[in-house]
Amino acid sequence: MVKTKKLIMITAIITLIIGIFAGCSAQQSSTSNTKSASTVTVYPLTITDDLGNKVTIEKEPTKIVSVAPSSTESLFALGLGSKVVGRSENDNYPAEAKSISVVGGFSGPNTELIIKLAPEVVFAVKGSMTDEAKKLLESTGIKVITFNPANIDGVFSDIKMVGEICNVQAKAKELTDSMQTKREAILSKIKNVKSKKVFIDLGSFYSAGKGSFIDSMLKELKADNIADQTSGEWPQLTVEKVVSSDPEVYISLYSSLKDLQAIAGLSSTTAFKNGNIKVIETGTVDNDVVQRPGPRVIDGLEIYAKTIYPDSFK
């Protein structure tokens, strides 16, 4: 029974991560009908979301539904929290978001509830909404914008897109500029470091492989992601593969240190021999920020950087 519950939990976590990051595309957002130098949105506004869908926004939204934690965080960071009338069950930041009506979770949004809330716009991420649900919402006149950032620059583009759609362009630029300043400060501290081999454990040796958002952050930090050597964005590695790859840093986003120490073979890796094991417990703030492509993503980048290269931050 315990093993069954643990498997269900891991599956839920992987499903959420895939909903956030899977199929990360290099294509980023673009907009039209506005001048680049303008800070006031002109409606109707036609944007192209991260999946290549062209969507026309007729007027400034007054009611918004977000079905992804990262989108909800962006909306609040841009001062739009009062316009959010629906959220996913996983949206736990900021605290004010918890009082908003829940419209779905791992299994996808409840279209009936969303239609009753009558938002002008729904913000989603790739994997958080089926094509059928999207079409149903659009048939009622609700606009659906889907995000799928491939990297931190993609997060900046998406935040700016939200700013343009909701007529808070100046705030979006201010937010992304401050994020970029912190990003540069972090990267400046590791510019002369020697790359380290890193393994990200999402539970049961699932990891962030080539093309995933987490992989893009590790690359930005000049880390050698051992899961990058396998196929798929979210591969499940064997214990033997992890051990033979000999990670120098082991970062667990699910399994406890006690559980890891009980797994035969891991103790022979450099990470375990040197005590370079970082457990970022599920349900903690740090666990959220290292996975969410939203306004706190630079905090996540910093956590990874300090974990991999602690001497650079003393």
Task: Lay out the secondary structure.
Layout: H1 2-21, E1 30-31, E2 45-48, E3 54-57, E4 64-66, H2 69-77, E5 84-86, E6 104-105, E7 108-109, H3 111-117, E8 121-125, H4 131-139, E9 143-147, H5 152-165, H6 169-189, E10 197-201, H7 213-220, E11 224-225, H8 239-245, E12 249-252, H9 257-261, H10 270-273, E13 277-279, H11 285-289, H12 297-308
Parallel strand pairs: 4-5, 4-8, 8-9, 10-11, 10-12, 12-13
Antiparallel strand pairs: 1-2, 2-3, 6-7
Helix pairs in contact: 5-6, 6-12
Concise account of the structure shown:
This protein has helices at 2-21, 69-77, 111-117, 131-139, 152-165, 169-189, 213-220, 239-245, 257-261, 270-273, 285-289, 297-308; strands at residues 30-31, 45-48, 54-57, 64-66, 84-86, 104-105, 108-109, 121-125, 143-147, 197-201, 224-225, 249-252, 277-279.
Explain what this protein looks like in three dimensions:
With 314 residues, this protein is α/β, with parallel strands linked by helices. It has two domains: 28-185, 3-Layer(aba) Sandwich (Rossmann fold), CATH 3.40.50; 191-313, Nitrogenase molybdenum iron protein domain (Rossmann fold, 3-Layer(aba) Sandwich). The protein contains twelve helices and 13 strands. Strands 5-4-8-9 form a four-stranded parallel β-sheet, sandwiched between helices. Strands 11-10-12-13 form a four-stranded parallel β-sheet. It has a three-stranded antiparallel β-sheet with strand order 1-2-3, with helices on one face. It is globular and about 60 Å long.
